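User: Batch of two.

Assistant: Item 1 of 2:
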Amino acid sequence: MGRHLLLRLAVAGALLPGLAAAAPAPDTLTDSLRINGQKVPVESVSDTPLDGIYHVELKGGESFYANADGSYFVVGDLYHNEGDKLTNLSEQEKNQERAEALADVPDSERAIYRGVGEPRATITVFTDTSCPYCTRLHESIPELNERGIEVNYLAFPRGGMQSPAARVMQQAWCSDNVSEALSRAFDDETLSAGAGCDNPVAEQHRLGLELGVKGTPAIVLPDGTMVPGFVPPERLAAMLGLDNQPGAERQR
């Protein structure tokens, strides 16, 4: 089953038995859902714009769509097709969940880089000090700040928590000035701080996995949209709806 099937469901859902029937309460689906005869751990069940179709999220992050009694599944994204606009509702929901999860990370656990003026937009970046494209993005921070973009780093060691990069980032987060220490690490300087303090690197790595980070840098825009890989400052500014010229913030 692919995402194209969802479009067919939106038009012809009544053709499948049970899809157009009156649906019981979603908690019935939560309590009784079985796959191949085995009860599955359901995190949540929520309504969708399609009558009798629910969004089921399993513990662990997997999700799909199901009819009220769980006898039919659809795996993929749900789209709203209206006029000349096709909206990915599944992605919208993921973005909202991602933005809410990142909002819960306190400033004290972030490495924050901001310019002299009030930022016009803030991006969150899952980074790895051993990643060449992360280094390239870090080198563009002065220009990003000039454009009014504040950069908040969270740690995401690509090789896992046993990798050398994980230790380097733990050392950075154990330093008195995390942002300064990370900049030194990106310059291949050896950090003197130990990695044994109470630091959030492992927790941020887990968060990144939960939010769908698969590589670094992973840039998350204010609305929760995740953009993988390095993005040039002018393009990133355009994505944020900002003026494309450095220094625009100071001219306002």
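Item 2 of 2:
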Amino acid sequence: MLSLYRNAFGGLSRQVWLLALVMLINRSGTMVIAFLTLYLTQKLHFSIIDAGFVMVIYGIGSICGTFSGGKLTDKIGYYPVQLWSLFLGGIVFLMLVHVQNYYLFCALVFFLSALGEAYRPANTASIADFSTPETFTRSVSLIRLAINIGWSIGPAIGGFLASRDYTLLFWADGLTNIGAAILVFSFLRTTRRPKTDSQAIKPIINPKDSAFRDRKYLFFLLLTTMYAIAFFQLFTIGPLFYKQVCQLSEIQIGYILGLNGLGVALIEMVLVYKIEGKFEKLYLISFGVALVVINYIIFLFTHNYAWLIVGIIFATFSEIFAMPFMNAFSIERSKPHNRGQYSGLHAMTWSVAQISAPLVGTQTIAYFGFDALWYILGSFGLISAFGFIWLKRI
């Protein structure tokens, strides 16, 4: 077993490990988003529809952030984009803790999301720069490992903090963002790969290289968006369902969400190492997407805490099988001079989901109840799963 883990983590560059460390520090503070709907309804006493629109604003900001982040990455490089998105995002977190006005809160949430999501395409481009084609998927998985260790720590601590004072979540997120920015400034600015003579010559860009002309990739993005909408509800509407319907405490909610991150942290790297290259990526993605549907079936039939844990385990394996290979598929279709654009569009699918998920979720719950939402999300998951199979066959 130790040999298996050593082989799974072996051969990755020092720079990728540094990126993973930055991500671990950053995501250990991922508390506010997991509890934002609860904060808005329980602490600020906004209605559930108002809370849903705040999440919509967050999603709009993330679309602007990922698109501009991809453009800026291609123009000025991934280092400054990562540095300033982390640092300024931390400042906005510290500002939000003092805001109770609904419209000002929406405005700051927009800037927070735009700054935070600009980090993603820059991070993906930097992983590609410091990896070989053979190690890229495992490098992505290492970053995701850091994300999920942080995610397992963050909500668990967040549930503890929220049970005492919701404003502590904003302080924790703000300070960890600033800490991650300091780490980027201290280490990654001196580890950027020097350009070779061939890279120093600006390539002639063919308009046909645009990701917007890649029809197969655009269809891939549509399917990814549908999956992302289904998956995101676990972390936006899920906490509300756990609290209002299942009557769980904030600490129990934190444990469930943290279990997802812990499961990915323990399993993903080894599983990717064992199956990479043995199966078609789109088939693995399809299998992973289908697994999230099981979680919503469980939501429909039981509110028992043990079964909710079983559901999050299926959602965890959904993430493990789907997301690393989605990233790999995206990068494989790009070229060095348009990698930021491809990465930005892929990140935008999750941003679109951040808009659609709370909007669909809160409106459906308000008018039809939670069960209707689980039917809708299950249908999204199934359509997406079969779509990825069809995409492979064409």
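Residues 85 and 91 are 10 Å apart (CA to CA).
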